[in-house]
Amino acid sequence: MGISRPMTVSPSAEPDAVDTQRVRDASAIALRNLHKRFGRDAVALDGVDLDIHAGEFFTLLGPSGCGKTTLLRILAGLEAPNEGSLTIGGKDVTTTPPHLRSVNTVFQSYALFPHLSVHDNIAFGLRMKGVAAAERERRVQEIADFIKLGALMERRVNQLSGGQRQRVALARALVCEPDVLLLDEPLSALDAGLRNQLQVELQRTQKRLGMTFVFVTHDQEEAMVMSDRIAVLDGGVIQQVGPPQTVYEHPINAFVARFMGHVNLFEIDSVSGDRVTTALGQLRLEQPLAEHERHGMLLIRQEVIELGPEVPEGYNALEGVVRERLYRGSRVEYRLEVDGVVLLATASNLGQRLHAVGDRVTVSICPEDIVRLDA
Ligand SMILES: Nc1ncnc2c1ncn2[C@@H]1O[C@H](COP(=O)(O)OP(=O)(O)O)[C@@H](O)[C@H]1O
Ligand SMILES: [Mg+2]
User: Where is this region: Disordered (predicted)?
Assistant: First the structure.
């Protein structure tokens, strides 16, 4: 059974290998037409349909107030939907109380007992469940080794760093062996270096255990680096669901595009016959157009813009001026002005001469790299 899951994987096992045998169908989640209102007019969720696969690292991404926590609390059973249904492992749990769901939650605020030791914090859930002492000790030790907390077991939680506390919170949730682990912005209180490290650790832990993780964040880079799939939410409505690369490279609308960090968005401004034209400085971007795409926007990702001098064959070519340069180490960002239009470009820093503010540059864009978005 699940009790031995962490032990069946040696620490040296291939970190990215998913043992599909241990992925339990019991952890597949289906949400249908979920609505949640608070009071009369605060709509937190407005008709959410979603399938989360067993063994998946699934992320809910969106700005503050879009309904992420509400959705997680409904999964946990801490909040009931006004409408709609929820199944976990094919079983309808819409009205099942939290303690009868095989779901555990890790919060941003740790929610640990500060005066108790790491050991006692991890053991707490098992103690509540009445797991016998010997069995409890074995499982606590097992998970502590797995999360690399073995050396800290007797420390009190208030003597730990933020990253260590977050590990304890994770161990405490994992030791109960839920089918589904819910994580509500668990890393957002940590500084950047530690956060990056824990992102990798969390993702490896999830893959090794083959457990379903539903992770919440407002940080699109964090979502991309960790997730198998991402759902982008806005105003209680799911805007797009897909793997990180799809959501980033082919956002479905302007909201998703902006939220994924894109800035070069241009209105389609004239349509004639079966072609659409978008003005960008002196350049007229022309593309064939289907009937339903007569309205909408074009997206030019920062990193597809090439800065001359040569223009590859078939590319659009524009003359621009560098107005601002942001040196980011591995890459350099330029704010360009092209005939009064602002365009952001990212170049990798490969040791070539950097452009300076005021430089005139040739801007090249491959037509295939221009993405059309829904209105
Ligand atoms: N207990 C509550 N009472 C009233 N309004 C709430 C409550 N919880 C959440 N909301 C509202 O529901 C919306 C979604 O909130 P939440 O799910 O916490 O968003 P997120 O986690 O994405 O920041 C917000 O407008 C929020 O103010
Ligand atoms: Mg929240």
Answer: 1-20
